[in-house]
Amino acid sequence: MNSHISFFFPEILSNPKLTPLHGTLEVVMNQNVSLSCHSDSGSPPVRYTLFKHNQKVSALNRTDLTPVLFNLTINSASDVGEYKCKAENEISNGEKYSRSLNFTLKGTFFLLLLFFTEPVSKPVLSSPNSQAKTGQNVTLSCLSEKGSLPITYTFFKDKQSIQTPVKMQKREAAVISVLIKSSSDFGMYKCKAENRLRNKTKYSNISLFSLTSMKERVIDSSILPSFIVLRTTAKPKAERNARL
């Protein structure tokens, strides 16, 4: 008697499609918005997750490949912007993302929004680390005490951004960790804060750190952008030879 054994291999999902049911990406305050998300192919069950500004909003499960519907309400300016959805099934690391949708407020509402937007205040760049050496992670935080949310923070080293911008929806500092791999990682660091008023961008104050004493010296300047300078201090050659 011949027996047949069947094997089922889950199929990876296709990139999901995220579409607004009302057909337009221009919205007004207090408007209800419905977003459809689904993958055309792949093995169910499927879990769909909706993200707003890279933050999880909601998640829904499907036992088949029918679309899920996410219902939202535009209550404030923080509800507009970038949305995307993620689809995943039982395949490890098989998650797929949709293209982003960017919701904007209709012209009149956007102008009113800008009128009532408070510019960001000069951010403060700080580090809780009392020392830094090669192989150590240095934590940097940047915070503007005032300004309408959301606020986007960008960190720089020697005028080059070192990580993707961090958008904060709450009045909290943006925090990053910098690994000091070599002497090239020492140098000038600064951060930038901005909100919807892009022409009101502000930079942090100047701070100088010395690796020998690690005493912080703050230079108050209303013109220059702020930096954290991490540098090493080598002993003079004559002093090293004297000890030998």
TrEMBL record:
MF-aspect GO terms: transmembrane signaling receptor activity
Pfam families: Ig_3, Ig_C17orf99
UniProt KW keywords: Disulfide bond, Glycoprotein, Signal
SMART domains assigned: IG, IGc2
GO cellular component: external side of plasma membrane
InterPro entries for the chain: Ig-like_dom, Ig-like_dom_sf, Ig-like_fold, Ig_Fc_receptor, Ig_sub, Ig_sub2, IL-40-like_Ig
Protein name: Ig-like domain-containing protein
Species of origin: Phasianus colchicus (Common pheasant)
